[in-house]
Amino acid sequence: MLSLEQKEVHVSQLKHGMFVSRLDVPWERTHFPLQGILIRSESDIEQIAAYCNFVIVDETRSCKPARIDSPMGKAQNRATSCNTKPAWQRRHCVEKYPVRATVREEVHLSHSLLSTMERQIYLICEHTLRCKRANIEQLVDSSSEVVESVIRNPDALAWLCRVRASRRPIYMHTIRLAVWGTIVGRQLGLNRFSLNHMCTALLMTGIGKSSVSDKALAGYSPTKPSLEYRQHLQETLYQLEQLRFYSDDITDTIAHYCERIDGSGYPNQVTGSEIPFLAQICGLVETYELLINPYHCTRAISPANAVVYLNKAKNQQFDASLVEEFIKAIGIYPTGTVVELSSGELGVIVSQDSKKRLRASVIPVLSAQGDILKNYRLLDLSYASGRDEDQTMAIRRGVPSSVVPRGILEETHSWLFDRRSDRTRACR
């Protein structure tokens, strides 16, 4: 029974300064070190949302928001327990990129880029299998276009990757890796050179993966990849050498992106800081992508559950501070995520507010009963939150992407972007 000083709230209603004393799951299942957490940032809210839907707030232990927003409060609100940023962040993360285009504008600018890249990857893979010369420089040029698109607006390519079908899933997987890697790098503040470097490296991993059998891909495990799957790494490096691609930095990143800081990776069981920084990000990106979009779609988990997995992998497979910053960068419900709303409907996130990610723009596609909705509508949850509390529309939880057929997403895309209307007004 709750006391007068305690109240149950949905995670979407959490605010800075609230003290969460209880969750709707046992504390032991979370990564939080203590039984209680003071909300200091949007990142705190997102991490709580990854584990539960409702929490108990203790008003006697809560603080005024002003106290949290003070300079001292901000100084304490760090990704690590230290008062300074981790060394890798001070060294590499120095840029800030404002959004310079709307989602609608960027979708129209970049809609053909995915088709171009898919064909380029297809030709490279086919030519290498037949021992023919391939033009890999075109793929390098495309990676630069990905970087510029993501810098202008990160939501556009994330959305296009979600709704696009592919002649062969491995090609789209490779493109999604490159897009996610660039989005994460942008949010972290990497410079353009590093973004291009990482995007190109992730695109090229598809060269070796295309030679892996469908059976080996379907049986992929993030903790115990098969010997056949692991051979994609050496195959990629070998083919790049045959193609006379001489960029030591990029090939070094590819050679190390499957390594893990605890030595559990491959091919050489490299540990800790011996793994190049960009290779660590690439490994983190691939792990996340293969959790939410695995080679076998029935194994997909929600982005929120993928975040739970990454939290458990801190200081084991991945550097703890890097995982925390990765989660801040990607959010619990990134663009393209399928979510269950408080109405019971299932919807797809079209865009999000980088400061308040639980207040995204969503299109409901399935009713609470599971029926396909014939009349689409675009919900701006930041607006919906301004209504009476009992009418608030909010995200209840994330669900695996396989729940919604791709055909529905393609129809949603057509409704939203292929006609002149004010529908994208809520798309930031």
TrEMBL record:
Signal peptide: none annotated. InterPro entries: DUF3391, HD_GYP_dom. Gene3D superfamilies: Hypothetical protein af1432. Transmembrane segments: none annotated. Residues 148-342 form the HD-GYP domain. This is HD-GYP domain containing protein. It comes from Teredinibacter turnerae (strain ATCC 39867 / T7901). The lineage of its organism: Bacteria, Pseudomonadati, Pseudomonadota, Gammaproteobacteria, Cellvibrionales.
